Design the sequence.
């Protein structure tokens, strides 16, 4: 029985490895994917104009998301917990921008295998919105993706049209094929970054010393958006 389990496990790992190689082959072979390019460096050394970065990011992002969607374990990736961390000011911006339904604009999140793994992310802010939505991308290291901010996208010529129709879709400023997560075996920590679209918040994580602010945000979401957020103090 032990030998059978080891054989099955080896076959599964081999299959996962082949899947990752096939993903990278498809991505590296796409004409819009420029492996090794880093526009955060290109802007600093003057080889790329800052104004061109949003379109360059979107050009990379389109085939990346399409090819990633072809190879990712969709059931597994949708089972993770996704949290958008923010400070108090941006938390209130989310309240102001809410539509009462699902947002079409892609948003950056941290992904967790289980909720018990979550701790307050002081780097981005103490408030964490737990989101449900369609995962359009998941990478191992945010510093090998650099998706930028929603505001960057307004520099695109077609920004208003995109906002009205499909929503604001992010790209990546850095082209590193190996960073993308397709299955649980690729998942190595919490410096990851996920993109979600068609999302809505379902809970708010907050530190216990900020309970009054958290409860005000939760109440405003209910009053202004019709969404009842679960409060999760940590």
Sequence:
């Amino acid at each position: 029985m032990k030998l059978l389990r080891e054989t099955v496990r080896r076959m599964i790992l081999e299959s996962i490895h082949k899947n990752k190689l096939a993903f990278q082959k498809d991505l590296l072979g796409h004409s819009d994917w420029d492996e090794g390019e880093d526009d955060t460096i290109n802007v600093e050394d003057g080889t790329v104009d800052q104004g061109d970065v949003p379109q360059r990011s979107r050009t990379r992002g389109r085939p990346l998301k399409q090819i990633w969607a072809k190879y990712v374990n969709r059931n597994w990736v949708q089972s993770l917990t996704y949290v958008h961390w923010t400070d108090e000011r941006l938390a209130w911006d989310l309240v102001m921008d809410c539509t009462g339904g699902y947002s079409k604009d892609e948003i950056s999140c941290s992904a967790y295998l289980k909720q018990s793994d979550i701790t307050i992310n002081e780097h981005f802010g103490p408030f964490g919105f737990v989101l449900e939505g369609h995962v359009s991308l998941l990478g191992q290291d945010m510093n090998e993706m650099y998706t930028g901010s929603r505001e960057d996208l307004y520099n695109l010529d077609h920004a208003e049209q995109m906002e009205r129709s499909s929503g604001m879709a992010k790209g990546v400023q850095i082209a590193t094929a190996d960073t993308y997560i397709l299955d649980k075996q690729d998942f190595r920590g919490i410096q990851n970054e996920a993109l979600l679209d068609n999302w809505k918040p379902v809970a708010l994580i907050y530190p216990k010393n900020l309970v009054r602010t958290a409860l005000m945000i939760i109440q405003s979401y209910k009053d202004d958006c019709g969404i009842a957020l679960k409060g999760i103090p940590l």
